[in-house]
Amino acid sequence: MDSRIVTVVAAVVAIPIILVGYLLVSERLVAALPRQLQPRVRPYLWIFPAVGFATVFMVIPTINTIFLSFLDRKSVNFVGLANYVYFFTNPGTIGALKNSVLWLVFFTGGVVIGGLLIAVMFDKVRYESAAKLAVFLPLPISAVAASIIWKFMFEYHPPGAVQTGTLNALIGIVGLGPVAWLVESSVNNPALIFVGIWISTGFAMVIISSALKAISPELLEAARLDGAGELQVLRLITVPLLLPTLTVITTTMVITALKVFDIVYVLTAGAYDTDVIASQMFSQLTGAGHYGRASAVGVILLISIIPLLVINVRRFRREEAIR
User: Fold this and answer.
1) Domain ranges for the chain
2) What does each C-alpha distance from 76 to 52, 66, 86, 88, 288 come to in angstroms?
3) What is the pLDDT of residue 323?
4) Is the separation of the CB atoms in 259 and 278 below 8 Å?
5) Max CA separation in the chain (angstroms)
6) Exposed/middle/buried for residue 47 (C-beta within 10 Å: 0-12, 13-18, 19+)
7) How confident is the model at residue 1 (pLDDT cuts 50, 70, 90)?
8) CB of 269 closer than 8 Å to CB of 255
9) Which of 8, 29, 33, 201 could form a disulfide with 114 if both were Cys (CB 3.0 to 4.6 A apart)?
10) Within 13 Å of residue 206, how many CA atoms lie on the same side as its CB?
11) Does the domain made of 82-322 have the CATH classification 3.30.70.120?
12) Rounded Cα–Cα distance for residues 215 and 60 (Å)
């Protein structure tokens, strides 16, 4: 039997057994302590496995990545900030950074605005469930599978040939020529971003719909009776009340945009000026075999996400303080 299969089976069986054993022993130790100390000690013993796993699989690899980012191609010699200088001076990495900014702006805006509009438009209509289900359906599909679907949609053949791609076949009906959606630099990044929006809009819609149901109908009706139009109600009442929810969704989508990889890798593999930060890290690691540069890209990606996490943590603390 393959040793890897044995290792996986052993891990799947052994880890739960070890955890259960640890909890049983911990409870015995807590029971032996004085009664007034038990409530203080028990939480630390219960969270220790989670902290241990996070340390082994997240903290230590992060520290190791930061260390490797200061080393050369084979992680032998110290090169200081050379890998970071390369990232901010190389045309390829600068292009990837620009594309990531495009994802950051248009993907995040498209998902949040699209989810908001769909949630508002489909709220309280007879076919609400069916309509929202149709928008939500792409979300359970993996990004790789969704990208393969859209690869067939974007299929391109030279003018004069039969267009098997759905989009080119449709625009051909109205007399427009076929478009190389994944090759032409003027349309390929918007096409990739659209795939991401198509996948994630259902997530935003569901969260916003739940928050929308919590808004008092009497408040909206009072605004309409006072002469406010639907756009005014949306802009002056609905959006401000949904602002905490929209902030959470926006933060989540920003993080998703910064670490997007699978859509780009499946559809273009970063070619034709579609490279992003995550795919640049992958190409430096597997293509160029430069561990130092790949680690530097990973550290830059981590640093770009940290401020968003800090903002979220502070916001959650303010909300808890208000409650």
Assistant:
1) 3-68, 82-322
2) 29, 14, 18, 23, 16
3) 60
4) yes
5) 85
6) exposed
7) low
8) no
9) 201
10) 14
11) no
12) 44
